[in-house]
Amino acid sequence: MKELEQIKRIKALAEMGLVYAEDEYNRERYEELKQIALELMASVANQPLSILENFYMPVTDYPTPKVDVRGFVLNEKNQVLMAKESIDGKWTILRMGRSWLHSLNLCHKRNRGRNWAEHNCS
Questions:
Q1: Which residues of 70-108 are buried (b: 16+ CB within 10 A; e: fewer)?
Q2: What is the value of pTM for the model shown?
Q3: pLDDT tens string for the chain (122 positions)?
Q4: pLDDT exceeding 90 applies to what percent of the chain?
Q5: Any residues with CB less than 8 A from the CB of 22 and at least 6 apart, and which?
Q6: What is the end-to-end Cα distance of the chain in Å, rounded?
Q7: How far apart are CA 19 and CA 62, in angstroms?
């Protein structure tokens, strides 16, 4: 629905303005614009405003897509290689950075249809 996309864009512009506003006057203007966008969204969605106000995470930096890709590695004993998270100290499977993803994508394209264990992607 085009109307909803436009409302979401207005909300995003207001949130970006709030992140970079340097004075109280601009902050108030962007807060009002964000509130108007939420009210329009509530109207289009036929939902109470209170639900939408609590639905979205607060924006603290420039809103960009956040991608988190994880994978696991097995050793010869079929044990999973784990990594300790720096944030909370808990164990997790590996988080793959952008360079890993690019390498895996190239490897996948070169070896499409083959068993993963049959080829070396380095």
A1: eeeeeeeeeeeeeeeeeeeeeeeeeeeeeeeeeeeeeee
A2: 0.51
A3: 688 889 999 998 999 999 999 999 999 999 999 999 999 999 998 888 888 877 777 777 776 666 667 777 778 888 888 888 887 888 888 766 655 555 555 555 555 555 545 445 54
A4: 28
A5: none
A6: 45
A7: 7
d(CA 58, CA 49): 16
In this structure, what are the phi and psi dihedrals at residue 57, rounded to the nearest 5 degrees? Answer: -70, 145
Phi, psi at residue 53, to the nearest 5°? -60, -35
| Domain extent listing, the chain | 2-55, 69-116
For residue 10, the tally of other CB atoms under 10 A from its CB is 17
Question: Cα–Cα distances in Å, from 36 out to 33, 53, 68, 79, 84?
Answer: 5, 11, 32, 53, 43
